[in-house]
Specification:
Layout lengths: L1 H4 L4 H11 L3 H23 L9 H22 L3 H6 L1
């Protein structure tokens, strides 16, 4: 029914981007985009007020998860830490 009413959700937009990928370069661009998106969502999640009472070990794990999403996106795009310093 979605195609009849033209209702787009975030998931359907991601599905459309993935289904439009035809080459390895398209797949890498999609994965980099998703990794950055998940990193940004994780960063926003960390700054929610209810997480201020959690312990330091939880915070270290959550920060490591966010950092890994961004690291993975940089790895896919071929960006090094020195590139980001000058950007």
């Amino acid at each position: 029914m979605q195609h009849i009413r033209n209702i787009e959700t975030e998931e359907s937009k991601r599905d459309a981007r993935w289904n439009a990928a035809r080459t390895t370069h398209d797949c890498r661009a999609y994965m980099a985009n998703e990794a950055q998106r998940m990193g940004a969502l994780g960063f926003a999640f960390l700054h929610r007020p209810e997480h201020s009472i959690r312990g330091p070990s939880w915070l270290r794990g959550a920060r490591a998860s966010v950092a890994e999403h961004y690291r993975y996106a940089r790895e896919i795009m071929g960006i090094t830490d020195t590139d980001q310093l000058y950007a």
